């Protein structure tokens, strides 16, 4: 069993023992999403794939929070933010914007990218290097600013 999945399972057991309902709910959601993919595709996810599931859940929570804030639903915003905090515990350390900028500069120089037509190629190269460590929306914004 992958290390990240083991950690999540162990945390679920700890949350059960501590009777932490909020953490237990969020962790069960993570494990449910992982299990759903494993059953649908008849595979066991490795750490990289588990991380991709967690990243998707983080993005969903952020989107929900912004929509609930726009709808003035602070009660639902609090629920989503609490889940986001727990889900973020399983994300690797995120790069700062300066660190992302250094990586983007290096990839632009290495690939001789010079215009916005190279955006797709750059995003493909950077996605592999920054997977789980950077918000790809920030990466995209930095590429746009550097190529325009």
Automatic annotation (TrEMBL):
Pfam families: YqeY. One of its GO terms (molecular function) is transferase activity. Keywords: Transferase. InterPro entries: Asn/Gln_tRNA_amidoTrase-B-like (IPR003789), GatB_Yqey_C_2 (IPR023168), YqeY/Aim41 (IPR019004), YqeY/Aim41_N (IPR042184). SUPFAM superfamilies: GatB/YqeY motif. Gene3D superfamilies: 1.10.10.410, Uncharacterised protein YqeY/AIM41 PF09424, N-terminal domain. Coiled coil: none annotated. This is Aspartyl-tRNA amidotransferase subunit B.
